[in-house]
């Protein structure tokens, strides 16, 4: 097995790519890169698993025959509260994350299935591949879902996830984040992305966050603290809007356009 790179080596790779991107910004034909780079060498596995061939053309109607389906009655409103899925209270900072799903013109995307998954307050997932020595919280699974309302608003009550180590390089830690999936009206429209928390000291060190090379684009993945969402003696509040199209679109993974 090859020796893992140090954080300093990794950060130097990240810096070199951002300098190159910044320099390209001065060129007349520059276009801002607003999505995740599929091939981003500091994120080691991206090199191994990004698509190398053109997307397979599929008949959307054919896919509908075997893709997952759901109806509005399948989603219970209680599934948006990740703190009530077990008999006891989960450990950590209770918080509400809310925002609107809109198109590029600010129109609400209604009755949209929004799914989230996340680590617990200690940065541990309930997953057999996550074996790092942080505690599993018996009262927290870390998965929830809801439908946006008529105004395109979603809302989750959950626990603030902790940062966690991963094996990309030596001493690699992910900034705290929540994974989001938006289902669209068909399975072929599914979008997946991550939401982060303001001021995280791990942003500069994280090759997944940095794989969106445009600083303004990656900042759109960062929620804002909103004291109007915070509730008295109950939960802190964060706001994060998701824009599906246009120049302020929220960056997402696996964009094949
Ligand atoms: Fe994660």
Kindly describe this structure.
The chain is an alpha+beta fold and 257 residues long. 14% of the residues lie in helices and 20% in strands. It has a single domain, classed as Aromatic compound dioxygenase (Protocatechuate 3,4-Dioxygenase, subunit A, Sandwich). It has 4 helices and 11 strands. Strands 1, 4, 9, 10 and 11 form a 5-stranded mixed β-sheet that branches. A 4-stranded antiparallel β-sheet has the order 3-2-7-8, with no helix packed on it. A two-stranded antiparallel sheet has the order 5-6. A hairpin with a 5-residue loop joins strand 5 and strand 6. The longest helix has 18 residues. The mean pLDDT is 92. Fe (ii) ion binds next to strand 7. This is Protocatechuate 3,4-dioxygenase subunit beta. InterPro entries: Intradiol_dOase_C, Intradiol_dOase_core, Intradiol_RC_Dioxygenase, PCDO_beta_N, Protocat_dOase_b. Keywords: Dioxygenase, Oxidoreductase. Belongs to the intradiol ring-cleavage dioxygenase family.
Summarize, please:
By secondary structure, the chain is α+β, with helices and mostly antiparallel strands. It has a single domain (7-50, 76-243), classed as Protocatechuate 3,4-Dioxygenase, subunit A, CATH 2.60.130.10. Helix content is 14%, strand content 20%.
Please bin the fraction of helical residues.
10-25%
Number of domains: 1
CATH architecture: Sandwich
Low-confidence stretches: none
Integer average pLDDT: 92
The CATH homologous superfamily is termed Aromatic compound dioxygenase
Shape: globular
- The secondary-structure element order is HHHEEEEEEEEHEEE
What separation lies between the terminal Cα atoms? 36 Å
Largest sheet: 5 strands, mixed
Distinct ligands: fe (ii) ion
Q: How many DSSP helices?
A: 4
CATH fold assignment: Protocatechuate 3,4-Dioxygenase, subunit A
Cα radius of gyration in angstroms = 19 Å
Oligomeric composition of the shown chains = single chain
Structural class: alpha+beta
Family: Belongs to the intradiol ring-cleavage dioxygenase family.
Protein name: Protocatechuate 3,4-dioxygenase subunit beta
Pfam family, one: Dioxygenase_C
InterPro entries: Intradiol_dOase_C, Intradiol_dOase_core, Intradiol_RC_Dioxygenase, PCDO_beta_N, Protocat_dOase_b
């Amino acid at each position: 097995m090859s020796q893992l790179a140090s954080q300093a080596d990794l950060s130097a790779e990240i810096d070199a790519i951002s300098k190159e991107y910044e320099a390209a910004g001065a060129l007349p034909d520059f276009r801002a890169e607003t999505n995740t780079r599929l091939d981003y060498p500091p994120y080691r596995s991206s090199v191994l698993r990004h698509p190398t061939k053109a997307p397979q053309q599929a008949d959307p109607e054919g896919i509908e025959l075997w893709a997952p389906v759901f109806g509005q009655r399948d989603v219970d409103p209680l599934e948006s509260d990740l703190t009530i899925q077990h008999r006891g209270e989960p450990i950590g900072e209770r918080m509400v994350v809310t925002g609107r799903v809109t198109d590029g013109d600010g129109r609400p995307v209604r009755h949209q299935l929004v799914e989230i998954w996340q680590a617990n307050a200690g940065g541990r997932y309930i997953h057999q591949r996550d074996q790092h020595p942080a505690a599993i919280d018996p009262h927290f699974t870390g998965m929830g879902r809801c439908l946006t309302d008529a105004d395109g608003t979603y809302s989750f009550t959950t626990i603030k996830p902790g940062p966690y180590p991963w094996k990309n390089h030596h001493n690699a830690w992910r900034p705290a984040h929540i994974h989001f999936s938006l289902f669209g009206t068909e399975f072929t429209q599914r979008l997946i992305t991550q939401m982060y928390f303001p001021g995280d000291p791990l942003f500069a060190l994280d090759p997944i966050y940095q794989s969106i090379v445009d600083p303004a684009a990656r900042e759109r993945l960062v929620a804002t603290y909103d004291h109007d969402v915070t509730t008295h003696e109950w939960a802190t509040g964060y706001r994060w809007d998701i824009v599906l199209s246009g120049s302020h679109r929220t960056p997402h993974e696996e964009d094949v356009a």
